[in-house]
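Both lines are given unchanged directly below:

***
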Amino acid sequence: MTGSLAIVGYGLSAIGPGVGVGLIFAAYVSGVARQPEARGMLQTIAILGFVLCEQFAIFGIALAFVFSG
């Protein structure tokens, strides 16, 4: 078997941001369903949360390539 353990570690660490994004947009949909007039403010907050959550996945893939080389 060939490969790097860093890539396996990244695969496992990608679960966290995946769950985080799911929770963020579940809360967004729930909030819009309860108060449709707050959609604009909630959308801005949801996208900001998505970006902050996804940055950890991007840092993780960068570190996986750094440590595998």
